[in-house]
Amino acid sequence: MSALNTFEEEIQDRKKKELAILNSLLDEKKNRVSQIKNERLMEIKEKYDREADNRSQREFARITESARLEAKKILFDAINLNMSAALESIRQELMNNTKKADYKKMLEKMVLYAKKYLGDDITIRCRESDVQYLKDMKITIGSNISSMGGIVAVDKSQTREIDLTFEELLENHEDEIKNFLYEKMI
Predict the structure, then answer these.
(1) Cα radius of gyration (the chain)
(2) In whole angstroms, what is the distance from residue 107 CA to residue 123 CA?
(3) Torsion region of 119: left, alpha or beta (phi above 0 gives left; psi -120 to 50 gives alpha)
(4) How far apart are CA 108 and CA 184, in angstroms?
C-alpha cells in the first residue's frame, strides 16, 4: 500500500503543482485583463474628459459671445436713445431760435445765399410769422409754409429751388450731427 500511497501522493503533488501553475496563469491573466481594463477605462475617461472640456469651452464661448452681443445691443440702444434726445433738443433749440433777435439776420443771410445761387429774381416761401422780417428785402414773397423756421427759395422760372428750412437743414446734416454726437458720447 505504500506504493499506492506514494503514487497517490505523487498525483496529489503533481495536481497541486499544476493547480499552482494554473492559478498563477489565471492570476497573470486576471492581472493582464485588469490592466487592459484600467488602460481602456483611462482612455475612455480621457476621451470624455477632452470631449467635456471641448463642449464646456464651446459653451463658454457661446455664452461669452451672447453676453458681448447683448452688451453691444444695450450700449447701442442707450446711444440711440441719447441720440434721439439730443436731436429732439436740437429741434427744440431751432424752434426757440425763431424767437430770438438775430433770427431776422439769419433769414436775411438765407435770402442772400439763395440769390447767390438762383439769381436776384427769386420767390421766397416762409412761415406766415416770418413775412414781416422779409418785406424790406425787395423780394417776392410766395405762399406760406409749415416749418420750424427758415425759407424755401425758387428761381423766376420755377425750375430750381433751395430749401433752407430748419427741418431740411437738420435732415441734410443729420449724419454729421450724429457722428459729432457719437464722438462726444464715446
Answers:
(1) 48
(2) 14
(3) left
(4) 32
Which three three-digit cell numbers place residue 140?
Answer: 417776392
DSSP E strands: which ranges in 14-144?
Answer: 122-126, 140-144
- Please give the pLDDT value at position 86: 85
When pLDDT is averaged across residues 6-23 and rounded to a whole number, the result is 85
Short-list 147, 145, 154, 155, CA closest to 171: 147
Q: What DSSP string describes 122-176? A: EEEEE-GGGHHHHGGG--EEEEE--SSS-EEEEETTSS-EEE--HHHHHHHTHHH
User: What is the overall mean pLDDT for the chain?
Assistant: 88
Distance in angstroms (rounded) separating the CA atoms of residues 142 and 150: 14
Cell of 153: 427759395
| Rounded CA separation 186/182 (Å) | 6
**pLDDT tens for each residue of 112-160:** 999 998 988 899 999 998 888 888 888 889 888 999 999 999 988 889 9
| Grid cell digits, residue 79 | 446711444
CB 134: neighbour CB atoms within 10 A?
Answer: 19
Is 0.70 topped by the overall pTM?
no
